[in-house]
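for the recovery benchmark. tokens below, seq after
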């Protein structure tokens, strides 16, 4: 049996406080929002009535409407919510966003998407003052949803949309640079990459058979790796792309293990992330494949585990990119140009630069 005392208490209204204090609802509103416009006597009456009724003050949503802003910045992840905490790159990026939010006194709202029709509703209903969209696909409907809100928006790493600033690096040029090191002396090179589209299927294709790649980051990095290979006079069809369904060490290890144990194992792997590269290194170690003698491996992002693993990788500051995305949405000057800097860090997992 549920007692009456156990039921949720109804929030007292401003009108009820005004009635108890013997003043107008506008006076109650001013007592909280603009106390200088209310006499000391009237303010005392309002606060006394509020204490008696248990009235905590105007609802935050109502105050936000009155100010014309919510006081929170939305980050559309394009992934499950746990991705923000599991993926080192996403964590670094969000650290930069949150650093700016903290300094500006602005909240941070994570808006995860799953590919379901409810994604658009979740974006439209988000109580935020602007959006940062974590890199997604060209055909992702949440981009239209963000644009339709009319709020300031920045896209990290693409896709490019008119009216939305894009912050990131030149992925194609960076991939060409790291690919030139990954493929030194190689005869059977492989790119271990991200999904090609929102279907996220696991697939292995040759350089002449790659279908439409709808994720800009995947597309630009693949193009850069292909540039590095063909610029040396090699055939595009001799470079293979192994697209993993997710970005993770386990996914990289599983696919690399399968390929290294095949009749045509790769002798060089250019991975689109350190997670995939570290997975490839783990598979190679388990199979007794010598790195870099039998297999050269490169990564991307220079995460904390890359150094101890001896992984040659491409370094970029996702934290700075996240901070600049937040500054742009909030209308603050960004510290760096929209295209951020990157550099190749050569370690022991490769045979040497050409």
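predicted aa per position
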């Amino acid at each position: 049996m549920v007692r009456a005392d156990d039921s949720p208490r109804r929030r007292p209204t401003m009108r009820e406080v005004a009635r108890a204090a013997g003043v107008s609802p506008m006076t109650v509103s001013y007592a909280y929002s603009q106390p200088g416009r209310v006499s000391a006597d009237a303010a005392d009456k309002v606060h006394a009535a509020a204490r008696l009724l248990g009235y905590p003050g105007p609802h935050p949503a109502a105050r936000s409407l009155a100010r014309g802003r919510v006081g929170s910045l939305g980050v559309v992840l394009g992934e499950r919510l746990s991705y923000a905490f599991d993926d080192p790159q996403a964590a670094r990026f969000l650290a930069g966003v949150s650093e700016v939010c903290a300094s500006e006194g602005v909240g941070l709202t994570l808006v995860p998407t799953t590919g379901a029709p409810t994604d658009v509703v979740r974006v439209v209903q988000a109580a935020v003052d602007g959006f940062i969209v974590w890199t997604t696909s060209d055909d992702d409907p949440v981009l239209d949803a963000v644009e339709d809100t009319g709020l300031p928006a920045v896209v990290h790493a693409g896709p490019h949309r008119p009216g939305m600033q894009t912050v990131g690096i030149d992925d194609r040029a960076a991939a060409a640079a790291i690919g030139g090191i990954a493929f030194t002396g190689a005869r059977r090179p492989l790119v271990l990459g991200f999904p090609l589209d929102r279907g996220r299927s696991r697939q292995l294709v040759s350089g002449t058979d790659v279908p439409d790649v709808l994720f800009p980051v995947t597309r630009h990095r693949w193009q850069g790796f292909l540039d590095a290979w063909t610029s040396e006079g090699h055939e595009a069809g001799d470079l293979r792309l192994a697209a993993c369904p997710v970005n993770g060490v386990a996914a990289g290890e599983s696919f690399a293990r399968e390929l290294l144990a095949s009749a045509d194992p790769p002798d060089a792997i250019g991975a689109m992330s350190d997670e995939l590269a570290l997975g490839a290194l783990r598979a190679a170690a388990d199979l007794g494949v010598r790195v870099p003698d039998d297999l050269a491996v490169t990564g991307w992002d220079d995460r904390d585990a890359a150094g101890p693993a001896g992984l040659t990788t491409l370094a970029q500051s996702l934290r700075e990119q996240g901070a600049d995305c937040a500054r742009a949405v909030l209308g603050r000057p960004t510290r760096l140009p929209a295209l951020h800097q990157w550099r190749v860090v050569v370690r022991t997992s490769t045979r040497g630069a050409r």
